[in-house]
Design brief:
Strand content: over 45%
Low-confidence stretches: 1-20
Number of helices: 6
CATH architecture: Beta Barrel
CATH class: Mainly Beta
Shape: elongated
CATH topology: Porin
Strand order of the largest sheet: 1-2-3-4-5-6-7-10-11-14-15-16-17-18
Radius of gyration: 24 Å
Structural class: alpha+beta
Mean pLDDT: 87
Number of domains: 1
Helix content: 10-25%
C-alpha cells in the first residue's frame, strides 16, 4: 500500500479545506450554529445579511477571521484502517493461511460498515456599518467531504477460500471512495433598516451578492492502488464558477428578533469526474432570538433540506437542522456560550457545543468553541476580530 488507509481518510478532510452549508466561527459554532435572528453586523451577516444593520452608534469598522472544522468517524474507521495496513504489509507476498484470510476479511468487513466525513471552513470579513447601507465584505472557503470503503464480493469470495499462492495486495478489488465539494466565495452583504407603521417594531432587510467557485471531488481507487497525492489531481476534480445571492429579513421589537434568510438563492447541480451530480441547494432558515445586554438566546430552524454527498453511492443524503444557542455576557469583557444542533432527517448525529469569549474594551475579540456528539463527532472553531 502506498499510504496507510487511516492517514488517507484523515487527509481527505484536511485537503478539502472547508462546508458550503455550515458557517464556522468562535461565537456561532459555540451556539450550535444559530444566528439568523441574532449576532451583530460582523459574523452574523453571513447567516442573514439583514444582521449587517445591528451595530452600535460608536462602531465604525471591524475585521474578523473565523476558522473551524467538524469531523465524524463511524465504526472506528481510522483504527481499523491502521490494522488493515499492518495486515496487508505482513501478508503481501506470503501464502495466505485460512486464519489470516478470515482476519483480513473481518477487517475489510468492518471498514465496509464504517466511514469518515468532515466539514471545515475559513472566513475573513471587513465590515463598514452606516445608516444608509451597512456593508460586510467577505472572502470564505467551505468544503464537505466523506470517505468510505467498499468490500467487494470478489475479495470476499477469495478470502473465504484463498488460493495456495503468494498473496498480492494489489490483486484486491475493494475500493476507497471519497466524494465532496469545496466552495470559495467572495462577496458583499448589504443591509438597511426601515421604520414601519408601529413605532415599537423595526424591519431590516439585507442581500448578499457573491461570486462562487465550486470544485467537486470524486476519488475512487483500489485498496492497493490509491495514492493520497492523487486527491488534488485534475483527474478527480472539476471546477465551475457562478454568481449567487443570499436574502434576509429581520423584524425587531426591543431585544426580541425574528429572522428569515435564504442562502444560495439560485440552486444548482455540479458534475463530478465520474458523471455524478452534486447539488448546491438553497437553504431557507427561520430564527427567533432574545438579544439582551447579559443574556442572548437563539433558535434557528431550517425550513428546507440540503443535500450532502452520498455514502458508498452517488445517492443524495439530506440534512435539516434545528439549532439552539445561549450566551452569557459579563460586562462586555467575557462570554460563556452553549449550543445544540439536531438533524431532523437523522442523517448526522446531534451535537452539543460550548465556548468562551474575551472582548476587552469591546475592541479585541477572541472566541473559542468546541463541538462533541455522543459518539465520534468532534469539532472546534476560533474567531479573532477587531472592532473599531
Amino acid at each position: 500500500m502506498k499510504t496507510e488507509l487511516a492517514t488517507f481518510s484523515a487527509a481527505l478532510l484536511l485537503t478539502s479545506a472547508a462546508s458550503a452549508n455550515e458557517v464556522f466561527g468562535g461565537r456561532t459554532t459555540a451556539m450550535g450554529g444559530a444566528g439568523v435572528a441574532g449576532g451583530d453586523y460582523t459574523a452574523g451577516a453571513i447567516l442573514n445579511p439583514a444582521n449587517a444593520t445591528f451595530f452600535r452608534s460608536d462602531d465604525d469598522f471591524a475585521v474578523l477571521l473565523n476558522v473551524g472544522a467538524i469531523a465524524d468517524e463511524r465504526e472506528d474507521f481510522l483504527d481499523t484502517g491502521d490494522q488493515l495496513e499492518d495486515q496487508l504489509d505482513r501478508l503481501d507476498g506470503v501464502r495466505l493461511q485460512m486464519e489470516d484470510a478470515r482476519a483480513l476479511s473481518r477487517l475489510l468487513d468492518d471498514l465496509d460498515r464504517g466511514g469518515v466525513s468532515g466539514e471545515a471552513g475559513a472566513q475573513f470579513s471587513a465590515a463598514i456599518p452606516n445608516q444608509l447601507a451597512s456593508a460586510v465584505f467577505f472572502a470564505r472557503q467551505n468544503a464537505l467531504i466523506s470517505a468510505e470503503f467498499r468490500y467487494s464480493d470478489r475479495d470476499r469470495a477469495f478470502l473465504q477460500n484463498p488460493t495456495p499462492t503468494a498473496f498480492d495486495e494489489n490483486s484486491l478489488t475493494s475500493t476507497a471512495i471519497a466524494r465532496g465539494y469545496s466552495v470559495r466565495e467572495t462577496g458583499v452583504a448589504l443591509g438597511h433598516s426601515f421604520a414601519i407603521g408601529n413605532p415599537d417594531w423595526q424591519l431590516s432587510l439585507g442581500a448578499t451578492a457573491k461570486h462562487q467557485a465550486i470544485e467537486t471531488i470524486e476519488y475512487i481507487a483500489t485498496a492497493g492502488d490509491y495514492d493520497i497525492d492523487d486527491l488534488d489531481a485534475d483527474t478527480y476534480t472539476l471546477e465551475e464558477t457562478d454568481l449567487n445571492l443570499d436574502l434576509g429579513a429581520t423584524l425587531v421589537r426591543g431585544n426580541t428578533r425574528f429572522g428569515l434568510s435564504a442562502r444560495n438563492l439560485v440552486a444548482r447541480e455540479y458534475e463530478t469526474v465520474y458523471g455524478n451530480r452534486m447539488p448546491l441547494d438553497t437553504r431557507v432558515t427561520a430564527g427567533a432570538g432574545y438579544n439582551g445586554e447579559t443574556l442572548t438566546a437563539l433558535f434557528d430552524l431550517d425550513l428546507t433540506c440540503a443535500a450532502i454527498p452520498g455514502r458508498l453511492s452517488a445517492r443524495e443524503e439530506k440534512v435539516q437542522f434545528a439549532r439552539a444557542g445561549l450566551e452569557l455576557d459579563m460586562a462586555d469583557w467575557a462570554q460563556l456560550r452553549f449550543g445544540y444542533r439536531h438533524d431532523l432527517e437523522g442523517t448526522v448525529e446531534d451535537t452539543a457545543s460550548a465556548g468562551i469569549g474575551f472582548s476587552p474594551f469591546d475592541v479585541l475579540h477572541l472566541h473559542l468553541a468546541a463541538v462533541k456528539s455522543s459518539n465520534d463527532t468532534l469539532g472546534a472553531a476560533f474567531e479573532f476580530g477587531l472592532d473599531l
